[in-house]
Amino acid sequence: MSLINRSWRSSNKLLFSVTVVVPTLLASIYFGMVASDVYVSESRFVVRSQQRQENGALLSTFLQGTSFGRSLDDAWIVTDYIESMDALRTLDRNLPLRKWIGRPNGDVISRFPQPGGDESYESLLRYYRNRIVAVVHDSTSSITTLRVSSFDSRSAQAINENLLTMSEALVNELNRRGLEDGMRYANDSVRDAQRRVTESALALARYRSDAAVFDPDRQSSLRLQQIGRLQDELLAARAKLAEIAAVAPANPQVDSLKMRIAVIRDEIDAASNTVTGKGTNSFAAKSRDFERLSIEKGFAERELASALTLQEQARNEASKKQLYIARVVQPGLPDAPEEPKRLRAILVTFTLGLVTWGILSLLLFGVREHTLQ
Predict the structure, then answer these.
(1) H-helix or E-strand spanning residue 181
(2) Where are the domains of the chain?
(3) Would you say the pTM of this structure is higher than 0.70?
């Protein structure tokens, strides 16, 4: 019986040493003398758009609600980018990241590469997500907090600043793509309208050159005015002929007046044929083709004006949807290490050891009681 008790007490002491004393001693040595200081640089930002709210409009209020939901999506896009492999590779190109998080700045456990690990980008990405960056988004205030940890205060601030700059570049790239996508249809419409205006103008110019006509209506009006003057001359010549023939039928002027009247008639007929003749060279015939080409040109010009208006509206709408990152808090330069919480870590290790020892002691006590029975 006493042998069993002595064996149980010996086992219990050994268990206490293994679960409490040794872990607490190791934690005290590591956190007290080995663990490297970790500095944390913190910044805050919001993702905003240029869209304005129109007061007093129910539809606008609804759209603002959807815009708020969209701003949340945009904030998550920035968050995902910060934690992505693309951001890590860019950061590794811009800064001596591996030097800052490796030997001799960090201790053997917390530095990169970690014990048993390699220096691949996959391992670096895990280390980056677990130990360097922490992104927290507050959906209530729409503020995103970026915390960057490093073994040096200035490197933590530099990494934080670079991540913000890279995020701003990402947002600018998204704006550029959105503007291109939004303007693509409008720009295509403008180009098509400009092409039709050019084609219709060239067609009208070719017709004017081939038909030797500038404006059939105006030219017809001028020719009709000419016909009117010729008719006045014809009436005057006839009146003078009648007057002379009544007084002196043998007067030599009678023949010259008759010749003059015949010439005026020929001029009137020629001018009338130019205006209303049945041939293709008359202004009436040319006016149909000229009017058709003019209508096509006018329609193309109106279509171009409409396309330009739509292009400007698309540009204004796209500019309202432009995103930008507003920095609420700039990346700070920590003046004291935030991690590790040395005393707390030792106490937590000691507490967990006590709990483990208590549970295992109860199990051993139960085994002993069962043996005694």
Answers:
(1) helix 153-211
(2) 2-185+321-372, 213-318
(3) no
